[in-house]
Every structure is written in C-alpha cells, then in structure tokens.
Design brief:
Structural class: alpha+beta
Largest sheet: 4 strands, antiparallel
CATH superfamily of the largest domain: Pleckstrin-homology domain (PH domain)/Phosphotyrosine-binding domain (PTB)
Strand content: 15-25%
CATH class of the largest domain: Mainly Beta
Number of strands: 8
Helix content: 40-55%
CATH architecture of the largest domain: Roll
Distance between the termini: 23 Å
Order of helices and strands: EHHHEEEEEEHE
Number of domains: 2
Radius of gyration: 23 Å
Strand order of the largest sheet: 1-2-3-4
Length: 174
C-alpha cells in the first residue's frame, strides 16, 4: 500500500495531542492543573473579600496569588502553543511531500532524500484519532498518517487491519 501526503502542523499537533492523552496520569494531571488554578483563585478572592469587609489589612499576597493562577493558565494556553509552533518549524518539514509504503514487513517513509524503514516489531503502539493514525516508534517519536492520505475507506480499513495484525497496544475509534 502506498500513501502520500503533504506534512502540516496538523500532523505534528496530532502527535502531541495523543502524547498528552496517552500518559498514565493524563486525567489526574488535568484535574490537578485546574484544581491548582481554582485553589489559587479561591484563596485570592478570600483575601480580597476579607479586605473589602474590613476584616484584613491590605496585602500584596492577595494579588500575587491571583497573578500566579493567571500565569499558570497563560503558560498552558498561550506559551505552550507558541512553543509547539516553534518546535514544529525547527523540524523543517512544513509542506514536504511524505511518501509511505506499508507492507507486511513494516512501514517505509520517504521525505526528500531521506528514507526510513520501520519493522513492525519496532512499534510500541497505535492510536486512531479523528483525522489521523498515529503509530508509535517509542514514547517520543511517532509516524502520523492523516486520514486524507487514503484514497478511499476500503484502503483505510485495509491499513487498520494491517495495524491490528502487526502492532500491539492499539487504541482505535469504534
């Protein structure tokens, strides 16, 4: 099976989204993040409320704590996406033509003059996202194949069957 597509930020983002959601403590990490933010806001609002009622004297701590909560949210929703774009541009793959050959031996990738061969035993898992298949080489590296690369649904189903046969630890959408 031969697939071809143009690499874009969507593929890079899909790998990073999947990496964030596949961790053992992904849900706990999200709960802790928002719990920390809400706790900081609650403490700050408690200080401000006590100050307005005259039960406490002015303290910069009431605003510092609120600033910390806003900085945490800004880091996650502003700085991290900017860093993600920066790391993507450093890969110098934007707009490159990616060719994949999928066989019973594994996956061969070809980009410009660089080729890579991955045997099926080298993959540790596979995910199916809304618009992509992600085949994990290790915990940090993956091959991301957009569903738009498939010519039809039959080719996509054939690919899914090859992955099910050859890669352990698959998480496919049903």
């Amino acid at each position: 099976m031969k697939l071809e597509y143009i690499y874009s930020f969507d593929e890079y983002s899909a790998i990073n989204r999947a990496r964030r959601h596949q961790g053992r403590f992904a849900i706990l990490r999200n709960w802790l993040f928002w719990g920390l933010v809400l706790a900081n806001v609650a403490v700050s609002l408690g200080y401000i409320h006590a100050f307005i009622q005259g039960r406490a004297s002015f303290s910069w701590l009431m605003f510092a704590n609120l600033s910390i909560a806003m900085a945490i949210v800004a880091y996650r929703h502003v700085l991290q996406p900017l860093l993600l774009r920066r790391y993507y541009s450093q890969q110098m793959l934007d707009g490159k033509d990616i060719q994949l050959r999928v066989s019973e031996n594994g996956i061969e990738t070809i980009t410009d003059n660089v080729a890579g061969q991955y045997g099926w035993r080298g993959f540790i898992g596979a995910n199916e996202e809304a618009g992509h298949f992600i085949i994990w080489v290790n915990r940090m590296q993956a091959i991301c194949i957009p569903k738009r690369a498939f010519s039809d649904l039959q080719q996509m189903d054939d690919f899914r069957e090859i992955i099910i046969r050859n890669v352990d630890n698959q998480r496919f959408q049903t």
